[in-house]
Structure formats: C-alpha cells, structure tokens
Design brief:
The protein is mainly alpha-helical and 471 residues long. 78% of the residues lie in helices and 0% in strands. It is built from 24 helices and no strands. Helix 6 packs across helix 20. It starts with 9 loop residues before the first helix and ends with a helix.
C-alpha cells in the first residue's frame, strides 16, 4: 500500500487513534462489573455469585495485566510495537465470544483475567509506539488518547449494560477488536524500532509517512544518534531500572504519579460505580448516575487532552491531584454522616453525585493520563520495553491492592473509611508531584533523557535543568 507524504502530521493522528481503539476493550473489561456485578449478586441471578467471588471477578483484569505486560516487554523488541498490539486482537475477540456463553462466575473471572493480560500488553506496547512516532509539539495530546479510549469503553459498557444481557453485550463488544485490527494494520511501525533493528531505510520510510514530508534526513540522523547512544550499554535487565541513575529517577517520577493515581480511589470507583450510588441512597437513579458519571469523565478528559500541550502536564497534574483529594474527602464525609447521623443525611443527598462527578472531572484533567504519558517519554530505547512491562505490572498490582482494600474496609468498617484513606493518599501524592515531577511539554525524547542524566551532574547544571523543566 502506498502512502501520500503531503498531509503533515495526519498519519501520526491516524496511527494513534487506530492503535488506541484497542484500549476501548480495556475500558469495557474494567467497567464490566459496574452494570453486571449487581445483577450477578442479586437473589434471582442465573449465575449465583457471592460478594467475595464478585470482588475477585472485579480485580481479575488487574491480576492478568502483569502477565501480558511482561510478555509484551519481550515481544516489542522482537516483532515490533505495532505487531505486538495487533497480536492482542484475536485473543480479545474470542474472549468476548466466550464471555457470551459463560455460565459460571469463575469462568467469567478467568476470561476477564485473559482480557486483562491483553490490556497489560497494550499498555506496554502502545505508549512506547505513540511516544516514538509523535512530534514533540503534539506528543502530549497523542500520548493522552489511550485514556480517552479507555473511558469511552467504560461508558459504552455501562450504557449497553443497562439495556442488554451479558450474552448480547459480549457479542456487541466482540466487534471492537475487529475494527481495531482492520484500521491499525495499515499504519507504519515505529522508526525507533527499525533503527534498533538496524533497518535505517525502513525507518526513513516510516518517518516520511509519519511526518508527511520527504525531508526527514536531519531528524533521522538525530534519531539514529539517540538510539545509538541509548543502546550502547549491554542488553537491558530489570535491575538496570534501579542501578542506572537516570533510569532510577525516571522510575521514581513514574511511581509518584502511579501511586497517586491508584490510591486516589479510581479503580474502586470504576469497579463499583453502580454499587456506590446505590449505597449512597441518592434520589437520582443509580443507573442514570453511572451514565452521568462516565459521560462527564469522557468530556472532561477530551477537554484536557486538547489543552495539555498548551498548559503542560505538570500544572494539570497538580490541579487534578488537589481536586481529587478534596472531592473524595467530601464523599467520605457523606458516608460518615449517613452511617452515624442518618437523621441529617437527606440534607446532603446531593453530595454523592456532586463529589463523584467532581472527582471524575478533576481526575480526568491530569491523573487519568499522567502515568501513561510519562511512560512514553521517560525511558531510553535500551530499557524502554523492560520499563513499560515492569511499570504496567506495578500499576495493575497497586490497582488490585487498592480495590481489595476498598472492598475489605467497606465491608468491615463502612464506606467512609476507604474514601478518607484515598483522600489522604492524594494529598500526600500532591506534595511529591509538586517537588519532583518535571514539565516535558515541547521537549524531545532525547532532551528529556539529558534532563534525567543531569541529576548526576554538577550543581549548577542540575539547577539549570530543573529550572528548564519547571521544578
């Protein structure tokens, strides 16, 4: 197939959008328990389910993700970023078909584990692919699009989950990976991957398609030098993430954002959205509340990714984290009043949906895409595959811990205890973000590497770099 080279950044957008279409299935899988878990737990359920079995079903995607992430960390350097992503398509397709015919909660949990593994692979391969194909001027926007796709998938399953059975919705969802494959298969591979494999001619061809111009010699030369420098060290190992100072600093920045993201309460809100609204006892129908909740999140994230390249990720992260802490604190306070002062609860029946929607908006403008964005930028080529696989494993593990913590403390002590804990975690995360997370707006991947390396330089150079990156 021949591509035209006269459309500027068109193919960067097409490649990103068609690639992240696969993340819709991740959003569907993660949000699946919101409409269907209450049905499974009901007395007249055709698939009898206990609260404990239901909680394990909810976290299965998070438990499966490390398997896929570690597998993808190997595959991206063998078959490429693009082909690793495409390889997930048939697995997801047949998993949804299998879900349609499942009649046991543990079978459904196993299927969700498998789809979760593909999610881990996708969140390893796609951020790498997007970061490597993107022009620095639009990388912030493009790197944020997987978040939009995930939210769209969650909204989609919550809408059809109110109207259709597990059987019907699963067959509908099976169409999504087919659309992804049919569009993404035509997109170019990352030029970084080609250079890494010493296929400079292929890298040049890919770069011409992605930049929409024949004049790519200067950029290609810079990429070759960057990859050569980054590949000079021996084959990457997991230990390189902690023994090499620049990699260690990148890991530290990622861990700050990831822990703040997971322990702001996002996964519990995602898995138990309908249940939270039902327990809140708001006058607004719980199913309608969920649709409002997810729709507002989608709109807010869309707005955020269109302004991220203007304002930068750091200011949005700071605003997002502070807002999440306040919103979750008020949500916890509502449940405290409901449990201990029920006579006053009607006065505050507007608070649950207000707090959750506010949380969703504020989470969406920064924390939602912060971790994914920095993964596409922070690590050099030689350790990028290992870094992203390890990072996704860490991310989903923390998500599983947060979700099980929520379920246990909710059952044992009441809904307000986990939410007060999440509010505190967000406040602590805010302090670390302000002090350590840099602004990478408009910086090339090589410039970001030089900033991380400068941490071991003399004091004057270090302070100069910190000032340049906003910290």
């Amino acid at each position: 197939m021949r591509f035209s080279h006269s459309h500027g950044n068109l193919f960067q957008y097409l490649a990103t959008f068609s690639g992240t279409f696969s993340i819709i299935t991740s959003g569907i899988n993660l949000g699946w328990t919101s409409p269907y878990l209450p049905q499974l737990l009901s007395a007249n359920s055709t698939i009898p389910t206990t609260s404990d079995a239901g909680s394990w079903c909810a976290v299965m995607p998070l438990l499966g993700a490390p398997v896929g992430a570690l597998l993808a960390a190997v595959l991206v350097d063998i078959i490429g970023r693009k082909n690793t992503t495409l390889l997930m398509t048939p697995i997801i397709f047949f998993s949804f078909i299998w879900t349609a015919y499942a009649n046991n909660i543990w079978v459904i949990s196993g299927i969700r584990f498998i789809i979760g593994a593909t999610e881990g692979a996708l969140y390893t391969a796609l951020p790498m692919y997007i970061g490597e194909i993107s022009d620095p001027k639009i990388r912030g926007f493009l790197a944020s699009t997987p978040t939009i796709a995930g939210i769209a998938g969650t909204l989609f399953i919550n809408i059809i989950g109110q109207k259709y059975s597990i059987f019907t919705s699963s067959l509908i969802c099976a169409l999504v990976p087919l659309v992804h494959f049919a569009t993404f298969v035509w997109m170019p591979e990352s030029p970084y991957y080609y250079i890494k494999k010493h296929k400079v001619a292929d890298a040049e061809k890919s770069l011409k398609i992605l930049r929409g111009t024949e004049d790519v010699e200067d950029e290609l030369d810079l990429l070759c030098k960057a990859v050569t420098r980054q590949e000079q060290s021996k084959k990457a190992k997991v230990t390189d993430l902690f023994t090499v100072p620049s990699n260690r600093r990148a890991c530290f920045i990622y861990v700050i954002i990831c822990l703040t993201n997971k322990f702001s309460g996002k996964n519990p809100c995602l898995f138990y959205t309908t249940m939270i609204f039902e327990e809140a006892g708001s006058r607004i129908d719980s199913e309608l509340s969920v649709i409002i909740y997810c729709s507002v999140e989608l709109i807010a994230t869309l707005v955020a990714i269109f302004v991220v390249d203007k304002f930068g990720k750091r200011p949005l992260l700071i605003t997002s984290t502070a807002g999440c802490s306040i919103s979750v604190f008020f949500l916890a306070t509502y449940f405290f009043i409901k449990d201990w002062y029920p006579d006053f609860v009607e006065t505050f029946d507007w608070l649950p949906i207000t707090s959750l929607v506010s949380y969703n908006v504020l989470f969406s403008i920064g924390l939602a895409f912060g971790a994914v964005s920095v993964l596409s930028e922070l690590f050099p080529t030689n350790v990028k595959a290992v870094a992203l696989g390890t990072a996704d494993t860490f991310s989903v593990s923390m998500g599983a811990v947060a979700s099980k913590f929520f379920q246990f403390t909710k059952d044992e002590f009441g809904m307000y205890v986990p939410f007060w804990f999440f509010a505190t975690c967000s406040a602590v995360g805010l302090i670390f973000i302000i002090k350590f997370v840099p602004e990478t707006k408009g910086k090339t991947l090589e410039e970001i590497q030089q900033f991380l390396i400068a941490d071991g330089s003399d004091t004057s150079e270090k302070e100069c770099k910190k000032s340049e990156f906003g910290i």
